[in-house]
Structures are given as structure tokens and as C-alpha cells.
What we know:
By secondary structure, the protein is an alpha/beta fold. It has one domain (9-101): Response regulator (Rossmann fold). It is built from 4 helices and 4 strands. A 4-stranded parallel sheet has the order 2-1-3-4, sandwiched between helices. Helix 2 packs parallel to helix 3. The protein is globular.
Amino acid sequence: MLLVGFMPGILIADDNPNIRVLLRTFVENHTAFKVCAEASSGVEAVEKAKKLLPDVVLLDLAMPNLNGIEAASILKRTNPGVRIILFTMKVDGLGRSLASATHHYSDPPLTAH
């Protein structure tokens, strides 16, 4: 079914408000996606995702109360179809370990109609 005017929703989760603004600006000005919510912690991201059912969640790896990996695990259990993008601005041991351990896989493309 083709939904006229459908714009996939993105939830942005980062504890740094400046990063959230940069990501929102990029998404809204350079993609066909719509930011449906922002969250400042992993807990808040999970709560908002349960209510709003975004198509994509951008998760900072290092957030308070629930880090990005823990939040992603919960999100995939509660909404298996959600696409998750983990990112970090920190180049520490955890960031390097994840980068070297990550295996690329691809879901079918998510497009705005």
C-alpha cells in the first residue's frame, strides 16, 4: 500500500543537546525523514519509542541511565521492525571495540513515498 505523504519517523537519542540539534537539522534539511521525538537518555528513548513507534532510532552509545547498546536491545525486543543506528562521538576503548566487532548487515531499504 502506498501512503501518500508518508514520512518515516526518526527518534534521536543523545545526552548532548547540541548533538541532538545537529542531527535534527541534518535529518530535516537533507532527508525525506521526519524527526518524531528526541530523548536525552536511553531510558527516555525506550519510553518514547514504545509510544511513538519510530521507523528509525539514532542512539548515542554512551548515554546515562541506559547506554545505547542496552537501549537497542530493549527496542529490538519491543519493536522488532525498528531500525537502529548506534553512534558515538567518543573514541575510547568501547567505541573502538564496537567498531572492530561490528558486522555489516542490511535490512530492506526504508524509503519515503
